[in-house]
């Protein structure tokens, strides 16, 4: 019976299979399933080890034992695969039974914002670049020479009163003589003079930038922003100015808005004109019927413009008998206020978070 | 400038429709006149309408005291048809038979009050006897308006006095149009635009008496090239007639007396200022036009005592200045009630000097306003003089007994050559030669068309603004109109250059976007600051480097900002006073500083160098600030960290990653233990940290924690274009390292030690393609800082830094053993360096 006490290979295989089958239902995860697979079919697994029995049975039984071995292995493989499928199914069921309320999410962080003046300036630059303009700027502290004299605004002429200007004191530590009188530029026009002096004609630029005037009331800030356009070339006409402004208004405010000129005076242009656009805020595709923004007139005053004064061209080294040019300018701050419906100028420079954070943009 | 349509109608020789509602088709209605003026470049600011539909002349038939009120009278007033009882409180009620302005029951006063029958202390009053102010025809509200005794009772007042019914148009006159500072000049423009004939103001036949060459002496050369003086006798100074007072009131002037009123009337009619002296009070009864002696005193009409400058022009008698020429008369020779003899001045003064004097004393008068824009020196000057003499004779009885026309060298009228084709070429639309000639001649320009390509044009002397052909083209444009101007691009044969982009502008835009992406909000602050707010920065520049306006508007705007922090702090303070939310702002802009030495002035070969070498520097900065209330005992440094991260992230985002290490010099306005420099290579490009508690206390922000940081755009390299590197095909092998270190050893020092150790540990030549501490081709850095741990398990004053080191070879997988060998060398090398500064430094 001692021999009988030793189980036969077949018995061992059956016991292994029995062990597997009793363990299989306990498996509740893929990891446990893998563990079970290793336990029986791994390098040192219970079934794998039984393969060594092959050498211990008589050759006649080997085939039979081989087949039995394969049957057991197959049974285990099938059990594993079935269990795997069941586990996946159960997991899928569990997954699908979840419910998440997406109507509630924590408040997202408030996105950073660009100042409405920056947004408007960039949009203006974008539109004018599309129209073929280069963008330039110059110093804020500027020589009177470029702020006035080169622009045909003579000393002691009343045209100097058209803007109340900040003058800048020379530093005590600079003893140099012959220093020019300096101002905070009251308009971006010195950039015109600088660009013409430097690059000559033909030229087509816009100059957006910071400007300063001694004005401080509900509609004026001592610091503000202007944009100025200049085109000098052969055969440049006032009709070309109108065409350019028309295209600009179309691109910035919407197609179809009319542009009109009203004669006016700016010392650096002659003839000079203010330009208005048809009010975009009460425009029905044909007519502007009047609203609060245009004071019921159907027109919005935008800025000043005209044909560059030949004296300015001469002063800036360009021959007015060969070249003509036009220039225009208007306020960026006001454009930003119009665009966003900002009610008061003061909102522009106070830095109130509750104001700034409204101006989200792409 | 206020324009009376009544006045314009006299000069246009035809009636204008001055009361609404208007017939839109009537070009002579006030609204259409206003629209026309705007189209002519005389921009209309507003139109106001006046009329007194039911106010009549009343005759006082009886006056008796009110039985129950001491100050009131009961007046029986005849209105042309019947006698009406009115209660009146005025003290200047005329005697029986006198005439007054009467508003009967049913009349509506200009302020909207409709009169009804009412009882005043038991006496019925059927209307009201009115004052000038109640009727808005004058500024004298002291008593009722007493009318001439020969006026017919019952007549409508506005039928008797021209200008009571009126429309007043306010225009803003640009500095180039002195002619439009009188009704005559405006009427001249309108006459051409409306196709009517200009009617010059009537001048009655007056004698100007004997020539009196000694009346006026000119001693100031071209400062006063023409001076008409008139000696008048027998003047009776008194109030002006109602029509004149109404007229002056309509254009915003306060009537004084008939003499002064006439000079003001003619000024507003012709644009020519004039002045009447009491000749009796002129020493020598004559005037000298000369420049003032330094410090010479004068007391002007408005009782201001001035000490004159040699640049001032004065009208003096034989002894002292009697007027600041062209600006204001002197108190010593002003016309008074007792004046009988006048010296009337009608002159031309050189404009620029008048402007200098007027600005010197802050005196802006109707007179200086016109002289500094240049008045006529020829026909219109003479017309104004004749008009004034004629009106003075008519209204004050003064006779002209002598005159003097003193002259020096007069300005020469411009001779302009105009190619009529140039009009169309410049405007970009066709305007016929005959249309051009019609407009120019209509404006008083003499046009000689002998040469069809070069017309010889001479503008009238009242249009000093017309000096070049483009000025004439503007006149054509104004009158031809711009409605037909096409929107048509012109074609040029030349290629337009493409100007180089300013790299700083691109950088500023990129940093703006980067900071915004850090959930910060862009702020734009005024570029001015108070000098006291620049004090924290004294270690960075000297006080004389501050850029200061000579004429700031207020002391808090006394200098240009040398730094972006004060403006951001102002905004923070503004917000913290109004709401409690955490705050994050940024600003990208310029600051202003004079260079300390002028040697490094730019010399770029540009034509603007001449000026640029004297300009202050305007470096660009990008600065950000974060603020929140301190919750515990002291700030945590959390915001300084956040700010440092914002700046690092922003730089990384634009392709300019920076290293963090100690700043070159500690900033005294930042917390001494909470600040860091941002470095690109060996260049410091910015600084960040926590704002110093003393700075915050000075701004009343003591309870807040503020992180601040800034980047210096000029120090940053240009925006790079990314160069592609092939992705690593073989994975990196990592080793984690935990070090126990003194807290004074910064992470930057640890990283540097490890990097140095890795460089010397590499064994070139030993193996082909050895593993390196390198990860440049992956987003991760070669050494990552995972945690900076302080607290339980760590001695106080020490911290545990958890780091991850990435090792890889270029073209192959590395073995664990290789990496471990290298890692051990790196750690040993780093510890050797670290123990030099912290002997207790060890691996945990
Ligand atoms: Zn509108």
TrEMBL record, chain A:
Coiled-coil regions, chain positions: none
Cofactor note: Binds 2 magnesium ions per tetramer.
EC identifiers of the protein: 6.1.1.20
Subcellular location: Cytoplasm
GO molecular function terms listed in the Swiss-Prot or TrEMBL record: ATP binding; magnesium ion binding; phenylalanine-tRNA ligase activity; tRNA binding
Cofactor requirement: Mg(2+)
Protein's UniProt keywords contain ATP-binding: yes
Record-listed Mg(2+) binding positions: 270
Name under which the protein is recorded: Phenylalanine--tRNA ligase alpha subunit
Organism per entry: Enhygromyxa salina
The gene coding this protein: pheS
From TrEMBL, chain B:
InterPro entries in UniProt: aa-tRNA-synth_II/BPL/LPL, B3/B4_tRNA-bd, DNA-bd_dom_put_sf, Fdx_antiC-bd, Fdx_antiC-bd_sf, NA-bd_OB-fold, Phe-tRNA-ligase_IIc_bsu, Phe-tRNA-ligase_IIc_bsu_bact
Protein name: Phenylalanine--tRNA ligase beta subunit
SMART domains: B3_4, B5, FDX-ACB
Region Disordered, residue ranges: 759-779
Pfam family, one: B3_4
Keyword Nucleotide-binding appears in the UniProt entry: yes
Domain TRNA-binding: 49-158
Keywords: Aminoacyl-tRNA synthetase, ATP-binding, Cytoplasm, Ligase, Magnesium, Metal-binding, Nucleotide-binding, Protein biosynthesis, RNA-binding, tRNA-binding
GO MF terms, alphabetically ordered: ATP binding; magnesium ion binding; phenylalanine-tRNA ligase activity; tRNA binding
Domain FDX-ACB residue range list: 728-844
Class of the enzyme per the UniProt entry, highest EC level: ligase
Reactions accelerated catalytically: tRNA(Phe) + L-phenylalanine + ATP = L-phenylalanyl-tRNA(Phe) + AMP + diphosphate + H(+)
A biological process from GO: phenylalanyl-tRNA aminoacylation
Domain B5: 411-487
Assembly notes: Tetramer of two alpha and two beta subunits.
Family indicated by similarity: Belongs to the phenylalanyl-tRNA synthetase beta subunit family. Type 1 subfamily.
Native source organism of the sequence: Enhygromyxa salina
Primary residence: cytoplasm
Co-factor(s): Mg(2+)
Cellular localization per UniProt: Cytoplasm
GO cellular component: phenylalanine-tRNA ligase complex
Cofactor note (record): Binds 2 magnesium ions per tetramer.
EC number of the protein: 6.1.1.20
Coiled coil residues, start to end: none
Binding site for Mg(2+): 465, 471, 474-475
